[in-house]
Amino acid sequence: MTTKTPTEPGQERLKQFLLAAAIPITAVLLAALIGAILLILSGADPIAAYSALIKGSFGSERAFGRTLEKATPLILGGLAVAFAFKGGLFNIGGQGQLLFGAIIAGALGFGISGLPFVIHMPLALLGGALAGALYATISGALKAFTGAHEVITTIMLNFIAINITDFLANGVWKDTSGIVARTPAILETAAIPRLGTNMPLGFFIAAFIAFLVWYLLFRTTLGFEIRTVGLNNHAAHYAGITVARITILTMGISGFLAGMGGAIETLGVVGRFQPGFNVGLGFDGITIALLARTNPLAVIPAAILIGAMQGGASQMQFDAKVSFEIIDVIQALILFFVSAEMIVRYILRIRADQGGSVTLSTGWGQG
Amino acid sequence: MSTLATTSKSSWRELLRYSGWIIAGLVVVASIIGYLSNAQVTTSMLASTLRQSTPLILGALCGLLCERTGVVNIGIEGQMLFSAFIGFLANVYTGNLVIAVAAAILAGMLVGGLHAFMAVYLKMDQIIAGTVINILALGLTGFFYTAGLTTEGKLQPINLGPLADLPLVGPVLFNNPPITYMAIILVFVMHYVLFFTQWGLRTRAVGEHPSAADTVGINVNRMRYINVIIAGGIAGLAGGFLTLEAVGSFERAMTNGRGFVALAVMIFGKWTPFGAWGAALLFGFASALQTQLQFIGTIEIPHQFIGMLPYVLTIVVLAGLVGRSRPPAAVGKPYETD
Q: What count of Cα atoms within 13 Å lies in the side-chain half-sphere of residue B178?
């Protein structure tokens, strides 16, 4: 890396940063463009749709608060996937871990009374996160001890989690005052409040967690071990790292983050656990993690973007009569263009050695 | 001591080698006993097993053709969902079931082409490529689906004359709708193509050792493209089964994880068509049992626990078998020439 004209280090870093940001931004623009074409095909006006989407997500203080509210579980879901990627694992089971986090937080939120807010809320939040961690540990242990690929086991565990939480919300933890299968409302002392009228406190908790994850990954020995296993588990093994231990820990921490995402949704937004309420959050985590190129800090803006799309979707449906499923399509297209970097690099004329690249999971073969 | 160990090990291996036949024999005996004790329930259980296994074996055949050629495909779920939707739409707008099945197959091939483009040309991480397909299919079918579309009907069982009159075997095997027959035929065809034709040899060579295959003049990427697209057509047939043969209508996310269960079926079957068929029948049996238990309703098990059965079985199978069955060596790696 010798350049003929030495530039200021700060300037060089800024250039690197812009190059790294150019790929996800272009990916989002391309996805929006194809989304517009699909909107025209279905007989809608893309300009009206997109401006309603922006109005509904950033147009007022209330809209912005809603965007941040939507972004909150997405930050944690994105962190869960990004963290697992750093350890060479693909946690596609954020959904199941999140459901467990949501229902345990809900149960702790309504089941325990007499605690002050400063104890009750953190207790419910961490309880939910731990439930997610334990649930993800199943996949981590299966991977470490039997080699069963985490992609399939986590997906199967998603379906199992849907059934178990549905059973709990219909049975022992059912709110007996109504006919709907859901848990009773959480107590005031467990709820995550808003700052002022619109700003959700949960968002700032999630953003803080993103910093913690960054610190853990890049400033601690454990983080170094996790990243080494992620890059090459054979090399890690020869370097004296116990790969099985790191695999289980990575999956556990990833599940902790996803579980906290579910807990924060229950405690800060929904106010109780209700089956079918947070479906899809697990998949959103994948898009966000890749949009952030697995960088924990970049997860925050990526989650705000996806949160804005989801927060503004109802306004778009109302103003422009566009079905909100277009958001799912655009999200999938973002995922496509972010992962198909070759296309974006070609458009931007960025060489392969510039702007950095991310190493992700491998096939079944890796033991 | 060492000789003793070797003998017992080799006899175990011998037993494992014939385990498929042993299990098949046990199943036949069990079915006959079942038939003699309760003919009606046994017949309906076995028929239901075969029907439930159809999308799984088709999905598994798609997966194993992809993987034998060196491409991981976790997008089977999305391929099935998308082609189920296109097949359904074709049925709604043409009312012709043959056109609808063809449309489902073509839709599957189209998505297979997209997967091949991402995996082979763009050299994307193949697990991510599959995930893109799954999420894209969920989004597209959800966006374009409008409730209230109705169809003329669905594929009906074809009675194979005197064969269908045989006791037990007749109603189970010879009185099925067309895609179920096609799935059974495809198992044999896939076995023949993979292990007894030049194409199959080349496909396996590309999946095991692409650079050696390249050296002898096989176009690695072309083989991968074609196989992944054909496999997509098979997944398309599975999608067609769901909307055109099993249910007759489309629902959002109606594949319900079958595409992923199919991958477990493929691994359980050790990447062979007959092995996968056996595994698919086992999973089909679990689903049939689930329906039967719900139908009887006398046993006090919450329906959510019965509903979990196939998923739990998948995890158990993966945990118990993955280490012992070996995937094709080059699976998941894009081929790059130096």
A: 11
Taking contacts as CB-CB distances below 8 angstroms, the residues of chain B near A275 are none
Quote the domain boundaries for residue B200.
54-145+177-259
pLDDT of residue B158: 84
Examine residue B253 and state whether it is found in any structural domain, yes or no.
yes
The H or E element containing residue A195 is strand A194-195
A257-295 pLDDT per residue, tens: 999 999 999 999 888 998 876 666 777 898 899 899 899
Q: What are A138's two structure tokens?
A: 């199943």
Which parts of chain B sit beneath pLDDT 70? 1-20, 297-300, 321-325, 338
Alpha-carbon distances of A223 from A117, A255, B294, rounded to whole Å: 33, 16, 48
Q: Cα–Cα distances in Å, from B312 out to A258, B122, B203, B318?
A: 22, 35, 33, 10
pLDDT at A356 over 60: no
Q: Taking the alpha carbons of A336, A225, A139, A181 in that order, is the dihedral positive or negative?
A: negative
Distance, in Å, from the CA atom of B57 to the CA atom of B42, rounded to the nearest integer, reads 22
| Whole-angstrom distance, CA of residue A92 vs CA of residue B167 | 46
Q: Do A159 and B311 touch (CB under 8 A)?
A: yes
Q: Is B122 on the interface with A (CB under 8 A)?
A: yes
What chain A holds in terms of domains, given with CATH numbers, is 45-321 (1.10.3470)
Closest-approach residue (CA) in chain A for B326: A365
Tokens for A183?
């848990």
Is B255 a domain residue? yes
Q: What angle do CA B235, B80, B284 make, to 5 degrees?
A: 80
The answer for residues whose C-beta is within 8 angstroms of residue A95's C-beta and 6 or more apart is A158, A161, A279, A280, A281, A282, A283
Structural domain includes residue B64: yes
- If one counts the domains in chain B, the total is 1
Q: What is the chain B residue with the closest CA to A39?
A: B143
pLDDT value of position B2: 43
Query: What pLDDT is recorded for position A324?
Result: 79
Q: From CA A242, how far away is CA A284, in angstroms rounded?
A: 31
* B81-120 residues touching A, CB cutoff 8 A: 118
Is B333 part of a structural domain of the chain?
no
